[in-house]
Amino acid sequence: MAKTLRAEMLAGMTGLQIGIFAGILGAGVGVSSIVGYFRWRRWKKQIQAWQDFATTRGWSFMPTPGRFMYSAGTLKMEGSYAGRPLTLETEYRHQEKAYRIATIIRHELGDDFPREVVIRPEGLGDKFLKLFGVQDEQIGDAGLDAMLDLKNVTPQARAILLSAGMRRPLLNLARAFESFSIENGVLSAEVTDEVPCTPIELYGFLTPVRELADAVQGTRGHTQWRSEGTGQEGTQS
């Protein structure tokens, strides 16, 4: 059907019209090719930056080529920070009839962070519900309560979140990433349409995560933990 329509359309065109049509089509293909080529060049630079960043830290790095010539692929870096696993990777997602790239970082915060607590950024839906008196769990800090959606906040978790040094890293995390979560002791954060392409940008991207990880380690020895097997509260040293 489509071929028949194209044939009828071309048959009704004059030579000049066919030439104009072919020129427009060729220009469109040319522009798409140029855009694709520059995206591919940018991806090659990202590969080099990520490779150098991983090598200097003894981390692993693996790029995955795109499916077509001159198409950008994905990147994945794995290593550790403060002795705990860290992963940084990109992936394409189909959103609103288009593919968009996301950069995701995951880091295990370790046993110093209570695994029962769940933290996400407070969204518009949460703010709307608050207008009707529907509140999420609060920890007593106006800034953190306004920016974070908190669940399963035990007294132990509240003490950690309110401990010295935790407030600023949590707020910086909420400002730096459009989406993040801390669940079962694992931090996952991401941005869309943004991929670090220099060592400086990579370092900056990791900074909020590193600051939070350092702050979590800093809570050790200042928070009461339940002693194993006794059911008694004890102070970790």
From TrEMBL:
UniProt protein name: DUF3137 domain-containing protein
Biased composition (Polar residues): 220-237
Transmembrane spans: 16-38
Ranges for region Disordered: 217-237
Keywords: Membrane, Transmembrane, Transmembrane helix
